[in-house]
Amino acid sequence: MKDNDRCSSPPNKPWGSSDKKIRINDNPRVLTTNLTRRGFVTTVSVLTGGAYLSKPLRGRGATLVEGEHETSSGAISMSLNVNGQRRNLEIDPRVTLLDLLRENFGLTGTKKGCDHGQCGACTVLANGRRINSCLSLAVVHEGDQVTTVEGLAKNGALHPAQSAFIEHDGFQCGYCTSGQICSTVALLEEHGRGDASVVTTSLSSASPVELTLEEIRERMSGNICRCGAYPGIVAAVQDAHQKGRRAKA
Amino acid sequence: MNPFDYQRASASDTAISAITGPSHAKFLAGGTNLIDLMKNGVERPERLVDINRLPLEKIEPLPTREDRTSSQWRVTSRCPGAK
Q1: Fewer CB within a 10 Å sphere, N or C end of chain A?
Q2: What is the rounded CA–CA span in Å between residue B13 and residue B15?
Q3: Cα B47 to Cα A235: distance, rounded to the nearest angstrom
Q4: Closest alpha carbon within chain A to B28
Q5: Do the Cβ atoms of B83 and A140 come within 8 Å?
């Protein structure tokens, strides 16, 4: 059999042919719909949990409600700003900011890597500060400005950090990349403020800390990459830093 | 994670009184340790008192030769007077 038959029907079946590439959707036995897994789960939850619509289901549900009050179901009413858009909602206090962004707001650019605070794939900016959203309760962010990777581009133009990652091949599978980019944005802000890191040799120097490769590696050490795209990542951070300096000059 | 009451403290004294009481309560600041343990069922507080809004971001010298430090300090917080 030819290589392109790997996805096709088994041999000796009336459909399919070794001459054309068969996709799974062409198989008459396979029903394809536009229903995604997420859509299916949501539909089932709504149908079976009609009585619980006002009560979040294990943190997955949140109804959009105006106003500030604590409901009898234990959900907390809150409001926060995500990527420039104000969101009012009722949420189970156990819901993490990561799950709120991904499951409730559909902002799936931020990824759940370890859900444990160790990988950094969930990095977002809360009031400009980078945090692991998997270890941050959503309710804590009342009134905060949260920026995800979806909120970095302005007026259709990529953020310099985003274009730097593309130009310098700062990713392979891309799963850690949204966290890497958000971290980069915050890193440059921290460096611009004069924040020191563990590898900074002198805290008393009057001049700004130089962003050496060692400094970049240390400051990005909270974001790991299973693909090992680190050389590209470091180069991208360097380039984003240079772009920022040129923009200010 | 176990269900818990969530309370946001607006002042230090109300935070302290919220912690003491019949239910098992814990302060919540950055939460990177506590939330992780709660996710794994190791910590099961019945109430969390969020102290993130309290103005506790200072390190101040005390007359008793000790410095009062802050629960609000993050790993990433700036060190005042360092530069």
Answers
A1: C
A2: 5
A3: 45
A4: A140
A5: no
Q: How far is CA A247 from CA A193, A241, B24, in A?
A: 16, 10, 53
Per-residue pLDDT tens digits of chain A, which is 249 residues long: 444 544 544 555 454 444 444 444 555 555 555 667 777 777 776 676 554 444 443 333 333 333 334 444 689 999 999 999 999 999 999 999 999 999 999 999 999 999 999 999 999 999 999 999 999 999 999 999 999 999 999 999 999 999 999 999 999 999 999 999 999 999 999 999 999 999 998 877 767 789 999 999 999 999 999 999 999 999 999 999 999 888 877
Kindly determine whether residue A129 and residue B78, on different chains, have CB atoms separated by under 8 Å.
no
Separation in Å, CA of A131 to nearest CA in chain B: 9
Closest CA to A192 of A204, A210, A179: A210
DSSP assignments along A27-52, one per residue: -TTS---S--HHHHHHHHHHHHTGGG
CB A56 within 8 A of CB A75: yes
